[in-house]
Amino acid sequence: MKEMHKEDQKYQAYIAILKEELVPAMGCTEPIALAYGAALARDLLGEMPSKVDIQVSGSIIKNVKSVIVPNTGHLKGIKAAIAAGLVAGDATQKLECIAHASQKEQEIASLLDTLPMTIHHIENGHVFEIIIRCEKDNHYSLVHICDDHTNVIRKEKDHQVLFTKESAKQAQKTDRSLLDMESIYDFINTVEIDEIAEVLERQIAYNTAIAEEGLTHDYGANIGKVLMSQADDLVTKAKAYAAAGSDARMNGCELPVVINSGSGNQGLTCSLPVLVYAKAYRVSHERLLRALALSNLVAIHEKTGIGTLSAYCGAVTAGAGAGAGIAYLLEGDYKTITHTIVNSLAIVSGMICDGAKASCAAKIASSVDAAMLGYEMYKQGQQFKGGDGIVVKGIEKTLDHVGRLGREGMKETNNEIIAMMIDEE
């Protein structure tokens, strides 16, 4: 292990990345991005529109179609998210912009029934793209979000451009190419814990609360509850807590989560299994925070190569991150951690993302299960080796392959999934 000093560029970058990525969001982040854009467009127009035109990329359609928009009385879909943003959105709160929308459920439902809204599927070379145009009388406003959930690249009103910028996702974010496994490992062992504690403590508090909500009440397919009814071993409990958080989040729970890589499900998967293991083994709170930092940074590193949205299920990368965090908790060294990641990815890298919905919880459970199998494999002297499918010698080369698979290899898969969903409507 090398000691990483504060003066090291990566030391400060990794702190910044954690703070940029681990932010609160309410509900599935794609419908919330739509609500955020609608609130911005309404504010620009200065009044409630009489007509709304919505242009979205296919992956937005995929990730909004089947998920409940929180605080709307269990409404689903693009138009519901737009209506919530128009009626109750507070754009200053970004991904928590409809946190108080439940007070206006009737107004949202009424607007959804009466406001003319048109939806257009666009493909302009961006996986993540939202363009919202609000009209009233002879006036209009336009908001363009691209490449990331709150990355507004254009604001326009009555043919006057009020704001514009480059669309590149990372334009205002810390360079993710600075991430690599050896440096992440050095960082989590040497970082002054007070510098990352606040953001991780918030993740612990928020994500634990929604997991317990999911285990206590009825949400979606109740995957967390089903798992808890099967067995009481530690692996099952870790899977159940992560799944229960998703059960609640995908099915209308009003509690926020702390996300990872733009995804609440990935934030839940990175954190909850690590928390379950930390409690069971009574590890120190400081070691827990270091393990959480590892889990989150590993997931971000993996997801950077894949991109914001893909047909590659993000639970897979987050599950591998959780496996790394748990391996660290249990005194695993660098080799144990990296082999846990590789073994996990070798098992479940074929899992597709077919949108946000109740079954995400089951995919999370499968990903956590694969991570723990990968950990146990290496503990017992077993591993998948270079040449086994997409696995190659060296953790970074394997992660490059995973990124290529998710970013390039699954493009057509993503297109077919979107086509199926559009044909169904």
From TrEMBL:
> Organism's domain of life?
Bacteria
A GO molecular function held by the record: L-cysteine desulfhydrase activity
Instruction: Give residue ranges for domain Serine dehydratase-like alpha subunit.
Output: 167-419
Q: From the UniProt record, give one GO term of the biological process aspect.
A: L-cysteine catabolic process to pyruvate
What family name appears in the similarity comment?
Belongs to the UPF0597 family.
What is this protein called in UniProt?
Answer: UPF0597 protein SG0102_27650
The record lists the organism as Intestinibaculum porci
